[in-house]
Amino acid sequence: MKVEQFIENAITEIRNEVQGQAIIGLSGGVDSSVCAILAYRALGKRLTPVYVDSGLMRQFESDRIEQLFKEIGLIRVNAHDKFLEALKGVDDPEQKRKIVGETFIRIFEEEARKIKADTLIQGTIYPDRIESEGGIKSHHNVGGLPITMEFKRIVEPLRDLYKDEVRETARVLGLPVEISERMPYPGPGLAVRIIGEVTKEKLDVVRKANAIVEEEIMKFSPWQAFAAILGKATGVKGDNRIYGWIVAIRSISSRDAMTADIMELDWNVLKLISSRITGEIPSVARVVYDLTPKPPGTIEFE
Amino acid sequence: MKVEQFIENAITEIRNEVQGQAIIGLSGGVDSSVCAILAYRALGKRLTPVYVDSGLMRQFESDRIEQLFKEIGLIRVNAHDKFLEALKGVDDPEQKRKIVGETFIRIFEEEARKIKADTLIQGTIYPDRIESEGGIKSHHNVGGLPITMEFKRIVEPLRDLYKDEVRETARVLGLPVEISERMPYPGPGLAVRIIGEVTKEKLDVVRKANAIVEEEIMKFSPWQAFAAILGKATGVKGDNRIYGWIVAIRSISSRDAMTADIMELDWNVLKLISSRITGEIPSVARVVYDLTPKPPGTIEFE
């Protein structure tokens, strides 16, 4: 099916399925952005796109998303404290994903009540569904939907698309390159890039490290490249022993995220990133590079 | 000073300082092995070399050490349970080093009492002393000596040597290549190559992973190459999501361990090690490569 045809069908489908008001969780990723534009074309003012600023996003990302989507009526909800509170003391990765998903949904429900919307539109794509069935991911996008959800209807217009088809659709829809070519980013955000409990301190460290990784690796066109925090190890700064964070760099190539290869980056690039991260973030002691393809690794660390 | 001259002086020094019986903790590393041979030449049967089999050693290492040093009267003490018990529930790296050091010393004291030895001979070398003073390491060899030690006298014949001088001495003394060219190995052994609590399961995983790392990297003549366990992360084996160990590979070049560079290994070697470790050890989900030189990293992870 041609992209133009898909767009037309999707708009028709959304119009047929949605009575009244609908809400969409916009994360800034290509999936939910494409989905939001399709839904906006189908529903106009009957659509309310909501961006939940969870505090789990990358540097400057929230401001940029707000700016890009204000013309389709984006609502930005600041929920930093709500997420940190909900994640306090939680180590287990499945638990973290569920908590993040549930917190997102509760906020959407709150927003939906305000505008009396009973439909949630989601940018779930084909590989997400496959992986959910296999139990590999409990959660995509805003996901891990709690069973007691208040919405009457979930609409998933992209459910049969692969990632490259979503990107093609984004280009045809005229979305800016920073969206159409945007790296995949997990729904639970930095929460699954921190092994163990999520804290404000760890979020700040991983966000800074991630900005450095993106600055140095994006030019090599990875499928995804990011930083994660694995725990603590010793190091020596100045003349003293420290016990600081271990930051992992993940940089992979892939066609559809179902499988992934590690990128064989130049050693000078890796050494530069390592020295920038330990140099610019005082509390980091070590930097490691993930050598695990998928499978047997997953793309994210949790 | 020529090596032959050093050997002669050291033997004289040991003879002068030791009255009666002495004991030496032999770890199998080049430092304590050279020290044991020198002390044996100085004291003969008045020396008792003790090998404490802590359960924190590498694959097959303990049997090999016993075999190599039985001719100078080595006593092997099995203390697996004692160490595991002492380390139970302990996360803090400094604490772990101290507990391992103290457990070693208590066992030496016990052995010393049996033979009425009041002198402990140790293979401490020059860089160990420098680093102890800077607070970078609390512990070398068997170290972190508890203040309440029962020994009247500590003798350290190698205290002014650099590592390459110790190796040269080993060669002149006619020690086998596997000792004279042996990689440095930390006194607390695998305990500082496991982030967090030391358990039997983690010891088995890190020992197996380490054997693979040595098999694949030793041919490239690293200063040190080893495996460590950093924590847990997700992976996918068969069709199922797992939550398994993260194994780190460290491979460095150095002249004297005071500073170290990471080795720029061929990607095919790194990928082979990664696939062997995840393939041969079912509970491992990820393999990472340490990109941190010293400084700001230390050589060991804890």
Task: Summarize, please.
Helices cover 41% and strands 20% of the residues of chain A.
Report on the architecture of this protein:
Two copies of one chain form a homodimer. The first copy, chain A, has 302 residues and is α/β, with parallel strands linked by helices. The first copy, chain A, contains ten helices and nine strands. The first copy, chain A, has helices at residues 3-17, 30-43, 61-69, 80-87, 93-115, 126-133, 163-172, 177-180, 200-217, 267-280; strands at residues 21-25, 47-53, 75-78, 117-121, 153-155, 224-237, 240-253, 261-262, 284-290. In chain A, the strands form two sheets. In chain A, strands 3-2-1-4-5 form a five-stranded parallel β-sheet, with helices on both faces. In chain A, strands 6, 7, 8 and 9 form a four-stranded mixed β-sheet that branches. In chain A, helix 1 (3-17) packs across helix 7 (163-172), helix 4 (80-87) packs antiparallel against helix 5 and helix 9 (200-217) packs antiparallel against helix 10 (267-280). The longest helix of chain A has 23 residues, at 93-115. The first copy, chain A, is globular and about 65 Å long. The two termini of chain A are 35 Å apart. In chain A, 47% of the residues are buried. At the A-B interface, strand 6, strand 7, helix 10 and strand 9 of A face strand 6, strand 7, helix 10 and strand 9 of B. Strand 9 of chain A pairs antiparallel with strand 9 (284-290) of chain B.
